[in-house]
Amino acid sequence: MASPAGEINQQQPPQPQTTWEYTLRKYLLLLASLVATVAYAAGFSPPGGVWQDTVAGDHTAGDPIIRDLNRVRYLVFFYCNATAFASSLLVIVLILLFAVIHEKRNAWVTVMPLRVVMVLDLLSLMGAYAAGTCRDRATTAYTAVLVSAVFLYVFAQMVLASLRPAGEHDVTNERARKVILLLATFATSLTYAAGLSTPGGFWSDTIAGQHRAGEAVMAERHPARLTAFLLCNTTAFVASLLTVARLLDSNHLRDGTAWSWEPYGCIVVAMAGLVGAYAAGSTRVEHTTVNVVALVGAVLAYIAFQVIVVPRAVNALRSTTDGSWGKLARIYSSLSKRRFGRKQLEQEHDDQDTINREAELNRAMEKARSLVLLLATLAATITFQAALDPPGGYWQDDNGGHQAGDPILLTTNPRRYKAFFYCNSTAFVASLLAIILVQNKSLLKRHALEAAMILDLFGLMGAYAAGSCRDVSTSIYVMAIAGAVLVYVVIHVVFFTLDHKGHGEDVLLEKRRKRLLLFAILSATITYQAGLTPPSGFWQEDDDYGHRAGEPVLFSNYPHRYKAFFYCNTTSFMSSIALIILLVNPNLYRPAIQSYALSVCMVAGMFGLMGAYSAGSS
């Protein structure tokens, strides 16, 4: 006989299943927001640039060049880009609306309208990209094949997703979905903007027999390099979109088949495409490209060593109890205990303390995982953009022994440009390394992630100092500001930290840590780009008034305003980097937060950001 409680439970209606759209609503909002951002910017800065002068009966200054040269391509780009922008806004509204309904009624309405708009958004973005980036037959054919294949795949995937029942919410796969969607989001926005504005810029005039206005400068000077850049960038763009489309299937990470690994493969292809586009678009000579590829190869070799060689060696040592390997393991264990000052009588107590300490560090790293991933992704984004649009801009002509499309800073100050380029490349590769390391718990225990993040941050600092300054003294001042921030934090912690013994503040400390780290990441991203590309841009050529190509225009016209902008922006950037360095280390951020040293740095960075905005925009 069934119990009354059992009858009541049998009569209760089944709980509504939570779809992955609701679980990942924050990341879908981020995706839609970034797509709307890049589509909005592309609408005002169309591929090929705008006319710089007015010719009666031909064109008007400010009009898109591509509209006069290829009206069909322009119309396809314009309407696809506008559709992507409007669809992104509609996705944002639908997600917010469905989330409110779910929270109020504890039920998630049908997500088919949301999925339809998302597919329309992605397809429109692909159409705009194809129309705006195709330059020759090779890139046109390659892009057309990829876009057509993805279009058919997305259509088939949408039909299959509508026929299958929605999958149950799986907490285990939630993190994987978030990571994949976050990486695909930034890769999509980054490659879309890079494809529409190719490195080296566009010709602003037409010379018979040489080039036409609106064509990429690299197409005439470095055609093979431009083709390689577009092919790699297109591959990364399509792979990232395919990843998002694959996520429309709610069962793809749970079926246990080979198809469940498809999103991971797409992300790997997207990252490889980004590296190829970086190597092809940021350099103009072969040996520099070789150096970038060698740097990437060294990182991949390091990852392979940590993932394949080290675990197997450790397992072999642990499984071997006799013989030379067993003796080596015991010797290594005894040396490790001596190195940390452990005594034989206190072995059990010390081992337990070590286990507790490692568990605490793992929990701290787990809590900061998402923010570290955000930092690495944003760092990869800004370094990729900085390499394709270096400080000082590009030459627009072939006078004076240089070629159009080459970086101005490379001609005027080659040492400074090389320092910027290699520091920026190191930060870019270290960011990709951190993105990989943050997913592997075994590598986290070996402090490989901390090393990668420190290398990333110091690479950003070096690239900023080399790219934002034009003389040695200013570079010294920039590094001195960074040193002063770190010295201040150390002094503040030493003299003003109280002895906090309670564990009740751990939750509060973690919340403050996340807020500080998020602010520092966003501040560093903004100020890095602003420092390398200051307001009003750069002079494009030398003139009779004493202006030199590559120098900031604001510095020539308003030197005091430029200095105020530069030092305020530098203070904010360096304080943000110092905050990140301290906050990613679990042993440093606790006393620094408890003594309010990091809060002081945050306030200083905020005032620096406001000062830079006031000086640079007014």
Automatic annotation (TrEMBL):
Gene Ontology annotations for the cellular component aspect, listed alphabetically: membrane
Matching entries from InterPro entries are given as:
PGG_dom
Give all residue intervals belonging to the PGG domain: 20-135, 173-285, 364-470, 509-617
A Pfam family of the record is PGG
Give yes or no: UniProt keyword Transferase: no
What residue intervals traverse the membrane? 27-45, 76-101, 113-132, 144-167, 179-196, 228-249, 261-280, 292-310, 371-388, 419-438, 450-468, 474-495, 516-532, 564-584, 596-615
Q: Superkingdom, according to UniProt?
A: Eukaryota
Q: What UniProt keywords are attached to this protein's entry?
A: Membrane, Transmembrane, Transmembrane helix
| Signal peptide start-end | none
User: Coiled-coil annotation: which residues?
Assistant: none
This chain belongs to the protein called PGG domain-containing protein
Q: Which organism is it from?
A: Leersia perrieri
